[in-house]
Amino acid sequence: MTVGRNGRIQENLGARCGFFGGSFMRTIIAAVVFFFSLAVQAQSPEPEMGNVLRVMGRFGVAHACPISPTMALTNAHVVDLRPFDNTPLYGARYQNIRGDGYGMAEGMIVSINEDLALMMLKPSTTGFYQIATEPPKLGETLYWMAYDWRKGKTAFAPRRMSGQVVAVVTGNIVMNTDTPEGASGSCLLNSHDEVVGIVAWGKDVGVDDEVTIAIGVWGPWRKSAQSLQARVEEALDKRKAETVESRP
């Protein structure tokens, strides 16, 4: 150990190097975190939203989520405006976000247990989504489509929405983002282009905040969607058989 001036100089240099080293390390850590976040985003790309259907009928605008070339999920409140009074289900014109598929979407059946319904597409749509098997995770970013009401010159334009999952309650997905009117029925997609839910409604929370709620259809909850689809296919098969039998 040296003493005197050299010792003091070495001590001062050590202190300066310590300060410089701490600042340098903080910069390195911040850079690592930044590039790690970019890597995560690169591994979790946003889904292809072009297959989501925009539906417009007699009483308003909404969306629908194609799960096969001829079937699309939406909300019961989109097709059944006066529930439980035996009125016919309403249909609508449809067009996909991509703009290369359009036709008529006929309301076929509604669930009495959750805000889900199934529509038949005529003609078939040009693309559809698979239903997810895994549940959404807390903090996971999910995506859906809405109409753009922010300016007159962009009215009715497709608006991509996203939010993070803050809760899953009885199979309903709660996201930390508000959603514009007309988003009902949109697919709620994960980064793998899989449907985890159907956007249904929004809820004001706190003083000036809102969350979006979607009806979950992944994993065990997909049985609801599959049940609707099976009942429609059964009815169509029965109708087809009756038509064949009635022919002379």
Which features characterize this protein?
single chain, 248 residues, alpha+beta, Thrombin, subunit H, seven-stranded mixed β-sheet, six-stranded antiparallel β-barrel, globular, disordered N terminus
Write a structural description.
The protein is an alpha+beta fold. Among the domains are: 76 residues, Beta Barrel (Thrombin, subunit H); 93 residues, Beta Barrel (Thrombin, subunit H). The protein is 27% helix and 35% strand. The chain is built from 3 helices and 13 strands, in the order αβββαββββββββββα. The strands form 2 sheets. Strands 7, 8, 9, 10, 11, 12 and 13 form a 7-stranded mixed beta sheet that branches. A 6-stranded antiparallel barrel has the order 1-2-3-6-5-4. Strand 11 and strand 12 form a beta hairpin. The longest helix is centred in the N-terminal third of the chain and has 39 residues. The protein is globular and about 90 Å long. The protein starts with a helix and ends with a helix. 32% of the residues are buried. The N terminus is likely disordered.
